[in-house]
């Protein structure tokens, strides 16, 4: 028989972020410290009370550096999650599990990155990135954009998904960024003409199908539900959480199994909904990982908002916009707010359930947040 | 241009390719082909394996056309095609490669407009790498 699990056992009670820009002067460690301290201040919790940390394996600032800089107390739980943007929600999930199990009481998750002014990871050919590079790189399949474009072409071919569907995704994110003063693309509207005539990055994906390159950092604070009631902010409960690595999955180059067009989202979704009191119909707003526009229709299918092959059609008639069937990425997402490996999607989910988003969905009570599709992934179902 | 950085499991593929042969790893017990190569069979857990010759015939499963910014060498040939080819004998084994005009021709030697999902191709070899020509 299953134990009590993590359902509503913990809550996010603090969020913090730095500015987002193509170039920030401060280094990653300083940005991490600023985001973490901002999140703790938001929660009204002193740094000395923190006893758990979670971040990404790709995070440059390690626990030792962060703890001694900002003045944490004794840490009794710390974990890191792999697979780049696939780990965003898992950082919170690990802390929720640790706190629910009694291994810690106050957890901080964070991501600090200088992807805007720093090097593009794929240009470093001296290290093997987490893909079976020998089977792809020599042939000029070099960048994440190329790897996902390969799946996107097949997806468009099999289901009749069009560039207009991908434009719907890019436009919804941009429209929300245009309402968010913190977004990199706050003052930069997007039109269909701009999208359709933009330069290619890897056909069939154009410039606007690709996320931003951003410097910035974010953090959030998670505590048990009893403690959460005494914090400064309205608690946002972690209702359910999941990681997902499906059988015979191959990461960014998921070309070698029976069904490459179903990926980690499907595996994470099966666990998430099994452990939730809610269904996709109950979700008021979603923050869906968008390193590339095509990941959103795929994720809409994976998390059960529509049937297989219907992700493109789902985006029609303004479905992803404010007032649509499922408003997504209400801060602008990775495509138009900031690309910080999806952590801004976690914090935006919290803002929606506090009622403080710059593109607030009226009465939002349940928000799905997802991590990178196309890599081993994770997801959170948050509720107010 | 990047050369394959091989590992223990993948090395035989490249050794056969250098001799102009396309072979794929298959289980030595249950016979199931698998790709990329790995130490044991995910179907029957056997550590026995063999390298099975295939015809080199296949179909384009998907393709992309990368544009700069790219690594030097690739940027000079861009836009070029990268294809994923489904092998006729083992449709789940899909090899990444390039459709070129003839063995050894540059990556941009076939106009992207000539490519279609489903197009028949066959393997040729140049410089130790498999390439594909329209069949």
From TrEMBL, chain A:
InterPro entries: Thiolase, Thiolase-like, Thiolase_C_2. It holds the Pfam family Thiolase_C_1. Transmembrane segments: none annotated. Residues 258-376 form the Thiolase C-terminal domain. It comes from the Bacteria. This is Lipid-transfer protein.
TrEMBL record, chain B:
InterPro entries: ChsH2_C (IPR002878), ChsH2_Znr (IPR022002), NA-bd_OB-fold (IPR012340), Thioester_dehydratase-like (IPR052513). Residues 14-48 form the ChsH2 rubredoxin-like zinc ribbon domain. It holds the Pfam family OB_ChsH2_C. Residues 51-125 form the ChsH2 C-terminal OB-fold domain. It comes from the Bacteria. This is OB-fold domain-containing protein.
């Amino acid at each position: 028989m299953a134990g009590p699990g993590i359902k509503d056992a913990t809550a996010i009670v603090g969020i913090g972020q730095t500015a987002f820009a193509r170039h920030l002067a401060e280094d990653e460690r300083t940005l991490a410290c600023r985001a973490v301290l901002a999140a703790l201040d938001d929660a009204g919790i002193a740094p000395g009370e923190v006893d758990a940390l979670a971040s990404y394996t790709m995070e440059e600032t390690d626990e030792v550096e962060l703890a001694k800089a900002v003045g944490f107390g004794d840490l009794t739980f710390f974990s890191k999650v792999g697979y780049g943007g696939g780990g965003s929600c898992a950082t919170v999930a690990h802390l929720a599990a640790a706190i629910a199990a009694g291994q810690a009481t106050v957890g901080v998750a964070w991501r600090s990155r200088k992807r805007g002014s720093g090097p593009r990871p794929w240009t470093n050919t001296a290290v093997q990135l987490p893909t079976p590079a020998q089977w792809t790189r020599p042939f000029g399949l070099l960048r994440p954009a190329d790897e996902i474009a390969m799946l996107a072409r097949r997806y468009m071919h099999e289901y009749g998904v069009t560039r207009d569907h991908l434009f719907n995704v890019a436009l919804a994110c941009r429209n929300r960024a245009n309402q968010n003063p913190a977004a990199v693309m706050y003052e930069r509207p997007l039109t269909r003409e701009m999208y359709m005539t933009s330069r290619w990055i890897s056909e069939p994906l154009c410039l606007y199908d690709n996320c931003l390159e951003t410097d910035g950092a974010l953090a959030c604070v998670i505590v048990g539900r009893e403690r959460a009631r005494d914090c400064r902010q309205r608690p946002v409960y972690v209702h359910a959480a999941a990681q997902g690595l499906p059988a015979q999955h191959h990461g960014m180059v998921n070309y070698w199994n029976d069904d490459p067009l179903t990926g980690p989202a499907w595996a994470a979704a099966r666990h998430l909904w099994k452990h939730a009191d809610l269904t996709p119909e109950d979700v008021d707003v979603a923050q869906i990982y968008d390193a590339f526009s095509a990941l959103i229709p795929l994720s809409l299918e994976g998390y059960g908002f529509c049937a297989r092959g219907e992700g493109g059609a789902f985006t029609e008639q303004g479905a992803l916009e404010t007032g649509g069937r499922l408003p997504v990425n209400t801060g602008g997402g990775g495509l138009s707010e900031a690309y910080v490996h999806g952590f801004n999607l976690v914090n935006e989910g919290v803002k929606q359930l506090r009622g403080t988003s710059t593109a607030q969905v009226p009465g939002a009570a349940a928000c799905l947040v997802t991590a990178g599709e196309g890599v081993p992934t994770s997801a959170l179902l948050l509720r107010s | 241009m990047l050369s394959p950085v091989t590992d223990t499991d993948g090395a035989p593929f490249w050794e056969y390719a250098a001799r102009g042969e396309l072979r794929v790893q298959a289980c030595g017990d249950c016979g199931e082909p698998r790709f990329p190569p790995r130490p044991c069979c995910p179907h029957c857990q056997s550590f026995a394996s063999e390298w099975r010759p295939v015809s080199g015939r296949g179909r384009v499963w998907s393709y992309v056309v990368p544009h700069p910014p790219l690594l030097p060498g690739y940027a000079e040939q861009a836009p070029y095609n990268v294809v994923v080819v489904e092998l006729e004998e083992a449709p789940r084994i899909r090899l990444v490669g390039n459709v070129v005009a003839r063995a050894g021709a540059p990556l941009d030697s076939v106009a992207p407009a000539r490519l279609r999902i489903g197009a028949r191709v066959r393997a040729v070899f140049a410089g130790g790498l498999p390439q594909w020509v329209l069949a």
